[in-house]
Amino acid sequence: MVELRFYFVDDDLASSRHTVYLLLASLGSAFAFARAYAALITGMTDGALIRINIITTYQDQDSPKGAPGSDLHRVGVFSFDTDNTPPGLYVLTIPALIEAAILSSGALAGVAIDTTQSAVAAFVAASTAGGAIYPVAPWDAGGLAGAGDELSYTGAALIALRSAYVGETP
Amino acid sequence: MSYPFTAPQNISTDSVLVCVPVDYIPFFRTFFEQMQRRQTWRSHADYAAAYQVFAQIEVNMVSGCIADLIAEVRALRGLKPDFAAVDPLARTTDMYFSLGDLLIGQLDTRGVLDGTTDYATLSNIVQALVLITNPPQLDEILMALRGADPVVDNILEALRGTTPADETRNIVELLT
After folding, report:
1. Which residue among A82, B25, B93, B111 is the one 20 to 30 A from A150 at the CA level?
2. B44 touches chain A (CB under 8 A)
3. How far out from the chain centre does Cα A55 lie?
4. Per residue of chain A (170 residues), what is the pLDDT tens digit?
């Protein structure tokens, strides 16, 4: 299943989303369909198409729940240096950060994340390893100018963890 | 509402230091998350530039600017040689020279102190200066320059040795 989300803005820059689903085994053909479909619906609206999301989803069918006391609003905030020129930063957040990852002593006890904790260290290492596939800072998600423009994206590799702390979000 | 990006002159120097209670740091994430959204900014270029500024501020809030400030102060104070092998992140404030250490070092270098008093017990420079009870006299300086003979009244004769000084001879002749 592939989900296509088309985002529009109006004259007040208020935004809205139109969603359709496709039965496709891969994302490849979804690019072309999304562009063709976008051409159809932009003829029906005065809003401006500003973004298309093409999404595949892994869905757990067993409806599990988080551990007792888990809180999605308590996030781990990881700021990485990126290999831009000039150098940049990019932030990844992990929801419901485990308590074991939070420093319990020192000046930032209860706030700073222990980067030596095994799960944290593994996450940071995988994010900054620079292997065949690795996370990037998506500075440009690709344009809407024409066929193939969705691949004109630019991104910067994450090269080192700069800081990590616990954030609270509503 | 979306904002155009206005570049700061220099985020490192043209900033203010805001004291945030550590326990309240997590609540600032909501603000930073909003400032790091694409839709907060008028254009993609505005967003990309603003993202960097707010990401840097967020890093500074939990470590960066205070760490830089501490590093600058410690560089000024200087590390005590005994602690050169200690990991910089594990060093404590007592591993660096204090301003008192630096002041006493200056006085030692100039020969003002006597080398025996425990000046670490003094609280200010006035106390240190009061302890200077035997400043060198002129005759002692001349003695040091010319050797072990007793100092005579005539400074030129004292400097040049055993030949009596003559008031008609100048210092150049005496030295040649």
Report:
1. A82
2. yes
3. 11
4. 899 999 999 999 888 999 999 998 777 788 889 989 999 999 999 999 988 999 988 888 888 889 999 999 999 999 999 987 778 899 999 999 999 999 988 778 899 999 999 999 999 999 997 666 778 887 766 666 666 666 666 788 899 999 999 999 98
Judge whether B3 is closer than 8 Å to chain A, CB to CB: no
CA gap A31, B23 in Å, rounded: 46
How many angstroms separate the Cα of A69 from the Cα of each of A27, A57, A58, A72, B24? Answer: 37, 27, 25, 10, 20
3-state secondary structure of A10: coil
Residue A104, phi then psi, degrees to nearest 5: -105, 0
Q: How is residue B8 written in tokens?
A: 């700061």
Task: Count the residues in chain B.
Answer: 176
- Closest partner residue to A163 (CB to CB) among B44, B52, B64 is B64
* CA closest to B21 among chain A residues: A108
The owner of tokens 């890093």 is B59
Q: Give a three-class secondary structure readout of chain B.
A: CCECCCCCCCCCCCCCCCCCCHHHHHHHHHHHHHHCCHHHECCHHHHHHHHHHHHHHHHHHHCHHHHHHHHHHHHHHCECHHHCCCCHHHCCHHHECCHHHHHHHHHHHCCCCCCCCCHHHCCCHHHHHHCCCCCCCHHHHHHHHHCCCCCCCCHHHHHHCCCCCCCCCCHHHHHC
Residue whose pair of structure tokens reads 């979000």 in the numeric block: A169
Hunting for tokens 């485990």 — which residue is that?
Answer: A98
List CB contacts (< 8 A) between A167 and chain B: 26, 28-30, 32-33
